[in-house]
Design goal:
The structure is a homodimer.
Chain A: E1 2-6, H1 11-20, E2 25-30, E3 35-36, H2 42-52, E4 55-60, H3 75-99, E5 100-109, H4 122-139, E6 147-153, H5 160-163, H6 175-187, E7 194-197
Parallel strand pairs in A: 1-2, 1-4, 2-3, 4-5, 5-6, 6-7
Helix pairs in contact in A: 1-6, 2-3, 3-4
Chain lengths: ~200, ~200
């Protein structure tokens, strides 16, 4: 398969490339590395898909959000998650439904915070819940056997040093284990699923 | 209690006012009737709260979203739900955390489409999932015993004539029954709950 990995240079993206790279053609994309794309701008996404030609799968391991206590949050700070983590990923589906090969798949990233919140995580939880619900809804509409799933990981082992203090009491999972859920989505046949990866 | 009902003139809002009006002071608000407010604009929300003085509860029975098949949806059409149904309701919490009386409550409206999607409902499902996850996250941060819940109804009996064709196979619930869930939220003591009202 020809698989586009958006956010390929991130902690999760690298693990996804390591998992799938040995048996598929990977096209790495990101804001600043590989094929350049700004997922918050659907024109940028459409231009990328046009440039790349036929794709069998799209994986998104990208998406920004602001962490901040609710009493410091503003509509503008929520907008970071809405533009990037929510609409950035929705844009990949909107553009992908036209251009992916038949029975192709799109796999997004949400996270456990949608159901298991932490302090300072309201906009991240909101985005995760939005993506999970969108995936369930989009799956019943996609044409030509196209599929869409989301992977919802807890904190990555590789991120404990930076984010561990905000997520006490969660057993971290290795990015390589989360990458297996992306393999399950891309190389399996399910659609409309949220693959929770929680240790 | 002094209870603000946003969207008080809508099908659901009227039932909420009927349920709570006999034992509480209701302040009706809406885009075009009662106390005027544009929930998509936090300045409008803050101005309303300032004008009204102390409130013990806020209920939102308002929020727009566009219904359309995924292959006709655009980022701009998703934005209708993001601005109104998502951020409009988030704005009530952002402003409410400062101005509600101690142990006051905010009750939002999501819906069953977040977990049980229909054709043409991707932006509504997304908004419902966003609100449900936001409520769970905001509940653990609110100060002074403030509470936040969401009511997630299926199709209303009163709306079958207009929307029934899009939601076949769902047993409708009367708006008066959905209003009970708002009573449970406002007059009870729970927080972070999603009250599913599905027949």
């Amino acid at each position: 398969m020809r698989i586009l990995v958006v956010g390929a240079n991130g902690t999760l993206g690298k693990a996804v490339v390591a998992e799938l790279g040995s048996r598929h053609e990977i096209i790495a994309a990101g804001r600043n590395s590989g094929e350049k794309v700004d997922i918050s701008d659907i024109k940028s996404v459409r231009a990328l898909f046009k440039r790349l030609g036929t794709l069998d799968a799209v994986i998104c391991a990208a998406g920004d959000a602001h962490f901040g206590m609710l009493n410091t949050m503003t509509p503008e700070l929520f907008d970071i998650a809405l533009r990037s983590k929510v609409m950035g990923q929705v844009n990949l589906v909107l553009a992908g439904q036209e251009s992916l090969s038949d029975r192709g798949s799109i796999t997004l990233t949400s996270g456990t915070l949608g159901r298991d919140p932490i302090l300072a995580g309201t906009s991240v939880s909101l985005a995760n819940g939005a993506i999970d619900a969108f995936v369930r809804a989009a799956a019943i509409e996609l044409p030509r056997g196209l599929r869409v799933n989301a992977v919802a990981p807890t904190i990555l082992t590789e991120s404990v040093e930076v984010y561990g203090a905000y997520m006490r009491g969660r057993r971290p999972v290795a990015a390589a284990d989360v990458a297996l859920a992306f393999s399950k989505s891309v190389e399996g046949a399910q659609t409309g699923q949220i693959y929770l990866v929680d240790a």
